[in-house]
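User: Predict the structure for this protein chain, please.
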Amino acid sequence: MMELLELQSLLYEALTNKDVGAINRLKPHLKGPKNLSQESVLGIYRGSVLGKLSRTLESIYPVCRRLVGDKFFAATATRYIRSYPSQSPDLGDYGEPFSLFLSSFEPAAALPYLPDVARLEWYWHRVFNDEDEPGLDLQALSAIPQEQWGELIFHLPRNGVFIESPYPIHRIWEVNQPDYEGEGQVSLDAGGVKIFLWRQGYDMRLELPNEDQWQLLRAFQLKLPFVVACERLSGIDVAALLPQFVQQGWIAGFSLDETPNL
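Assistant: Here is the predicted structure, written as structure tokens:
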């Protein structure tokens, strides 16, 4: 009797790659209406699976789709699906390596920024669908004794993501939104961008920190005690930036460093 894993592998090859050997081995296990051949049954399954996965990619990557056009995106999605089968019963988990796929997809080589746009869209999708968090408890923070301030570890929003690109992908993303009004041209000569993407309640935040803010955000991402962060960023006025971070909502919580002093 055929093992389940082997049966699943054969079904995948039959559906995505139309592998003749896999189809022949599957035939004894296929059942369908008497008026349909086994090949027709597989065709129905194939259309259903590919259709659902393609629609999932379209919903997650609408800007990429707009940049390359519907037909090109459909063909690209089909190639991607054949290379990256779904590993989760939740379709919301499907499509993460699309950026990696695009980076080596020769037909898209004329759009070198496309993989980074896809990366931004993937993170937007994940951050948007992440769980809510309560935010910073200012009253609890104010209760920390001054002598322990150096031990504070500030936490960024749990759903926050850092994105760097040599291209102005934030502008490419912006001008390709359905409700965008304004100049639609984006110059790649505008240079790269550093993005902090997060969600505050129901609002998505695409932030463009300056260099000092970026360095402090990355230090907090490492969960460094406040005194250590200040020492490492000696050229940055951390004391002046911290109130800005609190006001921006970039500080979502805190804890005290429990590392023993040896």
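The beta strands are 152-155, 161-165, 193-200, 203-207, 253-256.
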